[in-house]
Amino acid sequence: MPVTLSERAANHVSNFLAKRGKGIGVRLGVRTSGCSGMAYKLEFADDVTPDDVVFESHGLKVLVDPKSLAYLDGTELDFVREGLNEGFKFNNPNVKNECGCGESFNV
Q: 4 - beta bridge partners?
């Protein structure tokens, strides 16, 4: 299944890349961390590397390394505002448990 951006996330990324003056999209991944085992990585991407799995979403590239794809398969990256806070939220259908603080997960 593809890894996608919501329309809100795509708009936020597009606006940031325009202000930054360069970039093709976002690079998503996971790393070992936290009390539940895995944590998300997100960074803005300037180019595609040979190992990247590339998805297109709302005109932007979503790049995922092959090792992370098993954990992110079918994930939608959203951009949400909750009260005074705003930020990216991973809607990941593979997650079985999350820690109480929401910083880590396991599948």
A: 76
Tell me the CA distances in angstroms from 92 to 16, 50, 75, 89, one per residue in order: 23, 25, 4, 9
Degrees to nearest 5, angle at CA 31 with 99 and 28 = 100
**How crowded is the C-beta side of 100, counted as CA atoms within 13 Å?**
0
Per-residue pLDDT of the chain (107 residues; tens, 9 = 90+): 899 999 999 999 999 999 999 999 999 999 887 665 788 899 999 999 999 999 999 999 999 999 999 999 999 999 999 888 899 999 988 776 665 555 656 66
Which pTM value belongs to this model? 0.86
